[in-house]
Design a protein that fits this description.
- By secondary structure, the chain is an alpha+beta fold.
- The chain is built from 5 helices and 6 strands, in the order αααααββββββ.
- The strands form 2 sheets. A 3-stranded antiparallel β-sheet has the order 1-4-5. Strands 2-6-3 form a 3-stranded mixed β-sheet, with no helix packed on it.
- Strand 4 and strand 5 form a beta hairpin.
- It is elongated, with a radius of gyration of 41 Å.
- The protein starts with a helix and ends in an 8-residue tail after the last strand.
């Protein structure tokens, strides 16, 4: 390599020094470059032994297997997640039906004439909640719980003698979770603590 470098340097020197004889300098550079190329061709490239090739091939096979295994596991996880939460939209729509059943029960609460009908609607509402529960849909605890923005949605904050600051004092709409995901958060009123007493 040192010999080649010196040859190239000499050729460049010839080109720089030859102001008047440009053609001769160019020929000198060409000859020097040809010498370098010829010498580089003569230098043998070290060949890999059979054992090195086998080791490299085994390494590539192991890497390919590891990648395929990781891909298979990732696809399996995604498939399980998709199956687990496939009913999310259906559950969300059924909860609205359950809300309407609950409103019907509350609307007929003071009417003795419709007590039998109200009790029947209440049974249907409870049956629907039981079915949802069997498929992993559970109500979110709210009343008396510490306010959690991940599962609760505060619609108001009021003073309270009964509940400490930051605790849910009233549940306006029940929230639900499907397994460990929120289908809809609970609408709650949060306590701001004991009211200030006027002096």
């Amino acid at each position: 390599k040192n010999k080649n470098t010196e040859t190239v340097k000499e050729a460049v020197k010839v080109e720089v020094e030859a102001d008047e004889t440009g053609a001769e300098a160019s020929a000198g550079v060409d000859e020097a470059l040809e010498e370098v190329l010829e010498e580089s061709k003569e230098e043998p490239i070290p060949a890999k032994s059979d054992s090195q090739r086998v080791q490299e091939a085994e390494k590539e096979v192991l890497l390919a297997r590891a990648e395929m295994e990781n891909f298979r596991k990732r696809m399996q996880r995604e498939s399980e997640q998709n199956l687990k939460y496939a009913n999310m939209n259906l559950v969300r729509d059924l909860l609205e039906v359950g809300d309407n059943l609950q409103r019907a029960i509350e609307a007929g609460a003071d009417d003795e004439a419709t007590k039998g009908l109200r009790d029947g609607v209440a049974m249907v509402s409870q049956q629907m909640r039981d079915v949802l529960g069997r498929y992993g849909c559970k109500p979110i605890p709210a009343l008396g719980e510490e306010f959690d923005p991940n599962v609760h949605e505060a619609i108001s904050q009021l003073p309270s003698e009964e509940y400490a600051s930051g605790v849910v004092m009233n549940e306006v709409a029940v929230g639900y979770m499907l397994h460990d995901r929120v289908v809809r958060p609970s609408n709650v009123v949060v306590s701001s603590g004991a009211p200030e007493k006027a002096e």
